[in-house]
Amino acid sequence: MTKLSVIGGIVTIVVLLIPTLVLGVINGEFVGSDLFSLGVIPYSLAVVFAFASMIYGMLGTSAAVETEEKQLLEKRSDTHALNVEEDVRFTAGRSFDNYRKYAPYVLSILGALIVAGVLSAFLRHWGARLEAPAGVNPVNGAIVSAVMAALSLFFGAFFVGQSRQPAFRWLRAFGAWLLAGFGLMFVSAFVAAFSSGGSMLDAVVAKVAVWVFGLLGVEFVISFIIEFYRPRTVRELRPIFESRLLSLFTEPGGVMRNVALALDYQFGFKVSGTWLYSFMERSFFPVVLFWAAILWGFTMIHEVGPSQVGIKERLGKVVSTELLEPGIYWTLPYPFGQVKRFSCTEVKQVIIGESEDDHADEEEEVPDDGHGHAKPESKKKGHEPMPVVLWTAAHGSDANNFIVAVNPDGPRKQADGEKTAESDTASIAFIRMMIPIEYRIRPDGVMDYAYRNADPVATLIRIGQQAATEYLASVSIMDIMSTGRAEAQQKLLARVQKLADEHHLGIEITKVMILDSHPPVEKVAPAFQDVIGAMEEKESTILKAESYAARTVPETEAAALRIISDAKSYSFRTTTVAKAESGRFSTQLKTYNLMPRMFRLKAYLDFLENDCKDIRKFIVAAGLDNEVYELNFETKERLDLIDVDAGALSGN
């Protein structure tokens, strides 16, 4: 067994482990497969168990030689029993017994540590990289994986077959992990050959393989713990580091026989001798095959639901171009026949400008809050306040940058009216946005959607990016972020629909929205915020000036009109009074010339009436001391010239 272990270990290291490390881990671009690189785990464990089997063989050989020497010494005529010196000299047997007793525990813990360490290293590496690897040529991965699978199968089957002999029992774990490597490489070759160079299927299967190896690593720990409580038998043939799960598929005999042996080993009595096991051994697989056949037969039945149409295929070819209406249809069982179903009423959505890792919800309707930022509707009852979204802080999903024009109408003008030089100002700017495109399959375009393009959704994303890039390069960043958004959405819808028709996608674009439009957050947004603040301040100053002008100009015009009116009124009043005074003077002069005494009397009486109305007056008659005049003011309040004797007053 020592030679077989050495040969197997060297072959595993040189032929399997080192190529896996070089082609799958160190130079991963050649194969480009995460699944292939996971082959480090089974091949590393196979090397460890080969090394353990080599030590087992060396110690076993030494113990066998020692036993022969003891038998020869016992047969000597002069020696009836071994003396102390001779007994101390024979230690190989005790070393072999101690190795068989304690080495399985060490190997179990070592196997768990290897699985945990390698898986953690792979998971850290996969989590740190930006994207999954894509092989330069998937044929490389398929060929290398197939060669590795063939070598693993050959050596694994050979060593598992050799382990049937009790002396080579420890080779079974070595062969089992080689067969595990065969299964991994076989799946890797299959994925590389039939995934058309895509890495999505490889990544999914690699995650499944990680869980499987993690389960096998946990089995090492569980076996280590259970070994302290498991009932012992006189002769223990199965070391605890052997995987019971792998033995179900790698040990000689059927799966049910291996299950029975595992149960016998764990419970300490012969479970395989019970009637239940006998029944299961006879009927389990026929029943499983029967139900598998029934389930496979159900793949012949296909339902085309309401608002759906179907296309029937047989052996990968379309049976008829006539679309299937809603109903039940029969085909050959999968994969020989199938019915592809499509909904012509369901509105789907793709998002242009979103990062590659943010397409998990691309079929979900995203409402618009009216300000260019989308927020999913809250599932909680009640009305919650909308959060304030600032473009200077990261928010939402990561969007891509688009190029837009700064001023597509021509060079800007300075304050003095001169145009700025082209080298003094940038003609482009960057804007970050997401553009959801809603579409549905046209009834007359189902065949185009299903067969004219390998991936119509990916094609729609590409033409959406093309249409957005072409259109945004011709519009102003301020227009697209403000009043020009509605017009941009309509023009983008027309452009995308035109490109979709040219590529025969068979879809109808129902809606195009522009969401989350703002400058790039990292460096541009703070500076752009300052520019917007300056523009708002400018607009505020202009509005204040216009308000002051609107208030001051009417007031000034009213004051000027009032001054002009007062001047005209004063001029009219002064001129009129002067003319009246001049006319009155002329009249008084004529009156005075005609009747001087009467004029003087009238002036004298007016003076007494008007200027001396508040002064007490005494009338003294000259030369008439004994005569008293009584003036009756009851009927006439004022004295008129016609009531006075003018001759008496004048002395004539």
How would you concisely characterize the structure shown here?
With about 650 residues, this protein is an alpha+beta fold.
Domains, number: 5
- What is the tally of helical segments? 19
Percent in strands = 5-15%
Mean pLDDT score: 75
Report the major sheet: 5 strands, antiparallel
Please name the defining characteristics of this protein.
652 residues, alpha+beta, Tetrahydropterin Synthase, Chain A, 5-stranded antiparallel β-sheet, 3-stranded antiparallel β-sheet, 19 helices, 10 strands, elongated
Explained architecture:
The longest helix has 71 residues, at 524-594. The chain is of the alpha+beta class. The protein has helices spanning 2-26, 28-31, 34-37, 40-74, 84-89, 92-128, 138-162, 171-194, 200-226, 244-250, 255-267, 275-298, 446-452, 456-472, 477-480, 485-502, 524-594, 596-611, 646-650; strands at residues 301-304, 308-314, 317-318, 327-330, 337-343, 348-352, 401-405, 428-441, 507-512, 515-518. Helices cover 57% and strands 9% of the residues. Strands 6, 7, 8, 9 and 10 form a 5-stranded antiparallel sheet that branches. The protein starts with a helix and ends with a helix. It contains 19 helices and 10 strands. It folds into 5 domains: 2-231, no CATH class; 301-343, no CATH class; 352-373 and 396-409 and 425-519, Band 7 domain (Tetrahydropterin Synthase, Chain A, 2-Layer Sandwich); 523-580; 596-650, no CATH class. Strand 2 and strand 3 (317-318) form a beta hairpin. The chain is elongated.
